[in-house]
Amino acid sequence: MRLICLCLFLATPAMAETDIRQLVIETAAKSDCALTMEQMRATFPPQGLTESQVGEVVARMRQAGEAQVVSEELRLSPKVCKGGKSAPELPEVSKMMARVIKVFRQHGCMMEEATGRAALQAAGITDRDIDRIQDELAALVAAGLITRIEGAAATRVEEPLCSNAKVGG
Q1: From 155's CA, which of 33, 48, 55, 145 has a CA 20 to 30 Å away?
Q2: Quick one: average pLDDT of 43-60?
C-alpha cells in the first residue's frame, strides 16, 4: 500500500512539472542558456514529453521572469540557467555602445555579420564609431555580455545586457 501511495505522489503534476523544468534548464545550459524550437523538438519528445507539457512549464518560467523568447529562441536567465549564480553586474556603457546595443535589441539581440553591418549603418553608426569603442567592446566580451558565434558568423548581446532598458533604451 505504501508503494502505491509513493507512486501516486511521484506522478502528481507538481512533481512532473519540476522534472520538466529541470530538464529544460539542463538542456538549455548545454546550449549557452538558449534553446531553439528545433532543439526542443529533438530533445523533449524522446523523453516522453509533449509540446503542450513543456509549453506549460516554459510559460510559467516566462511569467516568473526566468525565461524569455528572443528571435524565436527560448533564453533562460543566467541565474536560473547557471544554477543560482547571479547575473553579472551591468557595467556603465558609453552612449555609442548604448546605441549599438539598441540596434542589437531591435534585431532580437543577435545579428549575423552581413545584416548587422547594414543595421548599424542604417542607425547612423559607422565603422569609425565601432573602432572607437573597441576597448569597451572587448571588456563586454570578456565579461560574457557579448558573444561571438563563430559557426554562424554572428554576434549576440547576452542577458541581462540585451533586455536592460537602461542600456540602449
Answers
A1: 55
A2: 87
Residue with more model confidence, 7 or 118: 118
The three grid cell numbers given for residue 54, joined into one nine-digit string: 513543456
Confidence of residue 4 (pLDDT cuts 50, 70, 90): very low
69 shares its domain with 112: no
What is the C-alpha separation between 96 and 85, in angstroms, rounded? Answer: 30
Same-domain check for residues 71 and 11: yes
Q: Are residues 69 and 109 in the same domain?
A: no
Helix, strand, coil distribution of the chain in percent, nearest 5: 55, 15, 30
List of residues 6+ apart from 61 with CB closer than 8 A: 21, 24, 67, 76, 80
Mean pLDDT of 92-102: 91
Task: Kindly state whether residue 32 falls inside one of the protein's structural domains.
Answer: yes
| Residue 111, domain extent | 95-157
The answer as to whether 13 is a domain residue is yes
User: C-alpha cell of 128?
Assistant: 569609425
